[in-house]
């Protein structure tokens, strides 16, 4: 199985200009709504609509297990991936609650949980394997597994497009995936793990130091294979992270805006932009995670997140929290009067 980076065009510059002109005609000093103006102009150019909207929201949470969990890098055992996926499907997880509250379409995609969840109907099956291999000892995945995971993400965005989604949110679940994300970010940015590694599921300082040691060992092991983005992803990544990369690239190719969540999804976004730089033009960054590595990843993406709530849950929960801000930006743009409509002289 092979996977290729799709063609991506930039958002519509003509729509951007038209929306900017309307913003400057609304009954307010130019620029006085700050980031709300920037957000609606960007969203409009992505959607090619002068009245953008984010009423139809699609959320795909990709779930997978990680062989690196064998190294004791998480505060929770690997079985928690499976238990949390069941919680998603039963509606008890944070992203499940937020999806209901915001009337978003939520799906959970099994890209490689350690054991198939045949007793949990409703999960989308796109399995690349029974979890990745332990990348402290060998490559995390094969080329075929990487292609399957990337394709799983791409297929999710096609389902979103068929649904008529106006924006795509990607979430993730996988015990030890902050370790994989940190290793990926270290390889992409050329920095030491100590600058990026954080508590993840709740590690203390000793646990974080151990996580750094494991990542350092893995980076040395794979040093000769870390020159290209897909090679980095194959050696150090997770199936759910690869699925996010595929989703972001395909969404951009389809002209579908994406709302990026926290640290793990931002590392996937960084990988996607390394594969196709124009991909970043289709991304809106929802929040700044409490994970320490997120700051450097955001800087590498030249990204300014909407929110900073000290969240680090994952699942797409931080991205969902930004939806009301985007919706407010859209309704202000659409429903505010212009100076002419209000009979207010501008000179």
Structure description:
The chain is an alpha/beta fold and 347 residues long. It folds into two domains: 13-51 and 332-342, 5,6-Dimethylbenzimidazole Phosphoribosyltransferase, Chain: A, domain 1; 57-327, Rossmann fold (3-Layer(aba) Sandwich). Helices cover 47% and strands 9% of the residues. The chain has 14 helices and six strands. It has helices spanning 13-25, 35-47, 79-90, 94-101, 143-163, 177-189, 205-221, 229-236, 239-254, 263-275, 294-300, 317-321, 323-335, 339-342, and strands at residues 57-64, 105-112, 124-125, 167-173, 258-260, 283-285. Strands 3-2-1-4-5-6 form a six-stranded parallel sheet, with helices on both faces. Helix 10 (263-275) links the parallel strand 5 (258-260) and strand 6 (283-285). The longest helix has 21 residues, at 143-163.
Write the layout of secondary structure elements.
Blueprint: H1 13-25, H2 35-47, E1 57-64, H3 79-90, H4 94-101, E2 105-112, E3 124-125, H5 143-163, E4 167-173, H6 177-189, H7 205-221, H8 229-236, H9 239-254, E5 258-260, H10 263-275, E6 283-285, H11 294-300, H12 317-321, H13 323-335, H14 339-342
Parallel strand pairs: 1-2, 1-4, 2-3, 4-5, 5-6
């Amino acid at each position: 199985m092979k996977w290729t980076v799709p063609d991506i065009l930039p958002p519509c510059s003509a729509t951007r200009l038209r929306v900017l002109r309307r913003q400057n005609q609304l009954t307010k000093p130019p620029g006085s709504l700050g980031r709300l103006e920037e957000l609606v102009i960007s969203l409009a150019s992505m959607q090619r609509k002068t009245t953008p909207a984010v009423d139809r929201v699609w959320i795909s949470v990709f779930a997978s297990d990680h062989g690196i969990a064998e190294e004791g890098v998480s505060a929770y055992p690997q079985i928690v991936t499976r238990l949390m996926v069941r919680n998603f499907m039963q509606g008890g997880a944070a992203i499940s609650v937020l999806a209901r509250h915001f009337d978003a379409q939520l799906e959970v995609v099994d890209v490689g949980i350690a054991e198939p969840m045949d007793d949990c109907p409703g999960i989308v099956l796109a399995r690349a394997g029974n979890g990745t291999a332990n990348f402290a000892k060998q490559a995390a995945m094969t080329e075929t597994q990487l292609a399957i995971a990337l394709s799983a993400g791409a297929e999710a965005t096609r389902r979103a497009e068929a649904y008529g989604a106006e924006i795509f949110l990607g979430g993730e679940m996988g015990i030890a995936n902050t370790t994989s994300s940190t290793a990926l970010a270290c390889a992409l940015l050329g920095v030491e793990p100590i600058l990026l590694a954080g508590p993840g599921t709740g590690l203390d300082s000793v646990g974080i130091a151990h996580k750094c040691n494991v990542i350092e060992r893995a980076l040395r092991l794979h040093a000769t294979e870390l020159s290209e983005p897909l090679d980095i992803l194959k050696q150090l990544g997770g199936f759910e992270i690869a699925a996010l990369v595929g989703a972001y690239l395909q969404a951009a190719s389809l002209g579908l805006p994406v709302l990026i969540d926290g640290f793990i999804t931002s590392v996937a976004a960084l990988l996607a932009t390394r594969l196709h730089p124009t991909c970043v033009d289709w991304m809106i960054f929802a929040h700044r995670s409490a994970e320490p590595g997120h700051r450097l990843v955001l800087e590498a993406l030249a990204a300014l997140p909407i929110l900073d709530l000290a969240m680090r849950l994952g699942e797409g929960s931080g991205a969902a929290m930004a939806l009301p801000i985007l919706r407010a930006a859209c309704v202000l743009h659409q429903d505010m009067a212009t100076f002419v409509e209000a009979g207010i002289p501008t000179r």
